[in-house]
């Protein structure tokens, strides 16, 4: 393909995506919705974090969820058990959600009844970082079993994130080589103003209060 034509096509795609993102942000603003894009590896605890958050906030906020996955409705069915509005997006072979998919999903939801919208992105540490979904905040999950060096290995997604959440802190004792300080240090080196939070979502000592406090007090981005 001629290089000039290729650049022109890419510019048109980028401009179209920007227009859709702007439309999504207008929708969120008109309906007073604050949106969080939850990203992380498969098995990092994205769905569990959403479940525990719903348990904590269900009497204070109306929460809805858009579930992104390559296939199946397993995670959406888990979330639906909590009595919240949830919409599943199956991407087939696509390793991320995009703005067009989110806009289509929003058209099927009762937006006037939503305070907080969680978008659980496809489990991946590369593709989602390049796609603006119109969210207010990007949250990247790093689970203890993955080790402390994920920010160094995947710097782009951390550079674009607003918050890094260490999950599965309830099993820290089984991973003596994992260091919370090292992971947070790597993340802050990549993005100095990134918010750092640790959660433990299973077992007797559930730790989620710092995360919930931040959610309740953060303001939508303008």
Overall residue-averaged pLDDT value: 92
**Tell me, what's the shape?**
globular
Structural class: alpha/beta
* Rg on CA atoms, Å: 18 Å
CATH class, anyone? Alpha Beta
Integer tally of domains: 1
- First and last CA, distance: 40 Å
> Count the helices. How many?
8
Portion in beta strands? 15-25%
Order of helices and strands: HEHEHEHEEHHEHEH
CATH architecture: 3-Layer(aba) Sandwich
Strands of the widest sheet, in order across it, are 3-2-4-1-5-6-7
- Helical residues, percent: 25-40%
- Strand tally, please? 7
CATH topology: Rossmann fold
Most strands sheet: 7 strands, parallel
- CATH superfamily, called what? P-loop containing nucleotide triphosphate hydrolases
Contiguous uncertain segments of 5+ residues: none
Molecular structure report:
This protein has 222 residues and is α/β, with parallel strands linked by helices. It has one domain (3-217): P-loop containing nucleotide triphosphate hydrolases (Rossmann fold, 3-Layer(aba) Sandwich). It is 38% helix and 18% strand. The chain has eight helices and seven strands; from the N terminus they run H-E-H-E-H-E-H-E-E-H-H-E-H-E-H. The protein has a seven-stranded parallel beta sheet with strand order 3-2-4-1-5-6-7, sandwiched between helices. Helix 1 (3-30) packs parallel to helix 4 (99-106). The mean pLDDT is 92.
């Amino acid at each position: 393909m001629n290089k000039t034509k290729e650049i022109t096509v890419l510019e048109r795609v980028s401009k179209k995506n920007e227009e859709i993102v702007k439309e999504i942000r207008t929708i969120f603003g008109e309906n007073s919705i604050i949106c969080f894009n939850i990203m992380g590896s498969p098995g990092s605890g994205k769905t569990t974090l959403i479940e525990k958050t719903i348990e904590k906030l269900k009497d204070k906020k109306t929460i809805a969820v858009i579930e992104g996955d390559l296939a199946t409705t397993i995670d959406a069915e888990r979330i639906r058990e909590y009595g919240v509005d949830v919409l599943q997006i199956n991407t087939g072979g696509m390793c991320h959600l995009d703005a067009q998919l989110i806009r289509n999903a929003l058209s099927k939801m009762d937006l006037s009844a939503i305070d907080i919208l969680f978008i659980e992105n496809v489990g991946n540490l590369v593709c989602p970082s390049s796609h603006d979904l119109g969210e207010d905040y990007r949250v990247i999950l790093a689970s203890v079993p993955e080790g402390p060096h994920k920010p160094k290995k995947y710097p782009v997604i951390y550079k674009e994130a607003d918050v890094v959440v260490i999950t599965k802190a309830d099993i820290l004792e089984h991973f003596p080589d994992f260091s919370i300080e090292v992971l947070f240090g790597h993340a802050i080196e990549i993005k100095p103003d990134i918010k750092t939070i640790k959660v433990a979502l299973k077992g007797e000592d559930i730790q989620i209060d710092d995360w919930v406090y931040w959610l309740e007090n953060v303001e939508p981005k303008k």
